[in-house]
Amino acid sequence: MEIRLYNTLSRTVERFEPLQPGLVRMYSCGPTVYNHVHIGNLRAFLCADVLQRVLRHLGGWSVRWVMNITDIDDKTIRDSQPGSTAWKPDRMGAQTGDPRENLRRLTRYYEEVFLQDIAAIGIRREHFYAMPRATDYIPAMMELIRRIWRNGYAYVAGDSVYFDLSAWIKEHPYGLLFAVDLKNFIAGVRIDADQYEREEVSDFVLWKGRKEGEPFWELVLDDGTVLPGRPGWHIECSAMGHELLGLPFDIHTGGVDLRFPHHEDEIAQSAAGYGSETARFWVHNEFLEVEGQKMSKSLGNFYTLEDLVARGLDPLDVRYAMLGAHYQSVYNFTFEGVAAARRARRRVQEYIYQLFERGGSRSCDVELIRTEVFGHLADNLHTPKALAALFTFIGEHPAAELDRDSRNALRDFFTVLNEIIGVWEISERPPAVIPPDVAQLAAERWQARLERDFARADHIRQEIARRGYAVRDRSDGYDVVPLEE
Ligand SMILES: [Zn+2]
């Protein structure tokens, strides 16, 4: 199918074709592993996941998907220092005297937490081509910094190396993804922080000089200058994308907050060092709000997946709820929304089970619904339109009425759809496990019915319902099923 995607570079929806026939190379900015990721981060990873699934199953391409693990930056270093509240001695052991070892212990722990979180929301490890850790690519980052320096777009100040944005913007565009106001640009101002505001657009750090008590590596420039220190955040993604995918690759994803400065700086670094464009398409997902408000620790509405699971939510219901909003819209996370998503997800699941059961004689044109649902997904990942079309179809075509050919064709359709949506079981209904006391009551009820003691039968039925089950009578017997929530 033809796939169309909104490209932040062109600010239009464009037809997508991979640069190499048959293979899509895609890079997603991954987590910074200093704590549990929040559900806003998870939305970004989920959007990338749905995109790569659409590319595989509707585009028909192989996908080489890379998501980095930022295990060295300002925050990971801060939280691996002695006295940090993020340090969990029971999981990470005692702090050591070696800052690099402390950083490793902290980040490996939160990397594991992250991998469990994404698995829980249905992102499959085998879909990744690589999940590189930044600390495993430091030689590549050093080489890129040397290249930028050689090309005249980097300079040393103190023990650090900065990207010379004043030199760069004289000859090259900057602000390709995000309207940066270069009026505010002041030559010679240097930014050391990983994150900064558009009003602060300045020379940014590529290599940060060593600070006491921090992990460091030695960068050697061509003139023999040795600079103990560590990479800035932006250079990490430029180097890893280049090493693992080659430049330019097809798609770079991330949240809208990464457009500037992170992605803007990535573009400038890769162009200055490798002489190449970074990516053909830039795909950015919008923010997430919680109950209509910006998520923040001070408002008490800052959630990690662990928080939601502790409140009894199923992570796959969270996945399904998030797919109910288009990735370019602000998604308003609410508990009511997840509850509604749960009901909707179960309704589809019930329909799928029924496709494996006895049907009727009505036929239906499965090609129509396939074209409609997949058409919405292929058109800039319009998940809410796709799911709405699915529900209309389900409402109009009860599974129990459909003939064998229609049900078979629908099973095939749902199998592919679920490769993208990823929240259902495409199988026969698993047999319900009925507790012995309920089974016993059901048998007594059946006996009461045979004896035409309907008052007693009804009384037992109520008792069964109180225990969370229902009895469905057939002409030749009965089934006991769990009550719907
Ligand atoms: Zn990145």
Topology:
Layout: E1 3-7, E2 12-16, E3 23-28, H1 39-59, E4 62-67, H2 74-79, H3 89-92, H4 99-120, H5 138-150, E5 154-157, E6 160-163, H6 165-171, E7 190-191, E8 203-209, E9 217-220, E10 226-231, H7 233-245, E11 249-255, H8 259-274, E12 279-285, E13 288-290, E14 293-294, H9 305-310, H10 315-323, E15 331-333, H11 335-355, H12 366-378, H13 383-396, H14 404-421, H15 436-450, H16 454-466, E16 469-474, E17 477-482
Helix pairs in contact: 1-14, 5-7, 5-8, 7-8, 10-11, 12-13, 15-16
Commentary on this structure:
By secondary structure, the chain is α/β, with parallel strands linked by helices. It folds into four domains: about 5-130 and about 235-295, Rossmann fold (3-Layer(aba) Sandwich); about 140-235, HUPs (Rossmann fold), CATH 3.40.50; about 305-420, no CATH class; about 435-480. It has 16 helices and 17 strands. The protein has helices spanning about 40-60, 75-80, 90, 100-120, 140-150, 165-170, 235-245, 260-275, 305-310, 315-325, 335-355, 365-380, 385-395, 405-420, 435-450, 455-465; strands spanning about 5, 10-15, 25-30, 60-65, 155, 160-165, 190, 205-210, 215-220, 225-230, 250-255, 280-285, 290, 295, 330-335, 470-475, 475-480. The strands form five sheets. Strands 5, 6, 7, 8, 9 and 10 form a six-stranded mixed sheet that branches. A four-stranded parallel sheet has the order 4-3-11-12. Strands 14-13-15 form a three-stranded mixed sheet. α5 crosses α7 (about 235-245), α5 (about 140-150) packs across α8 (about 260-275) and α12 (about 365-380) runs antiparallel to α13 (about 385-395). The protein is elongated, with a radius of gyration of 27 Å. It binds zinc ion.
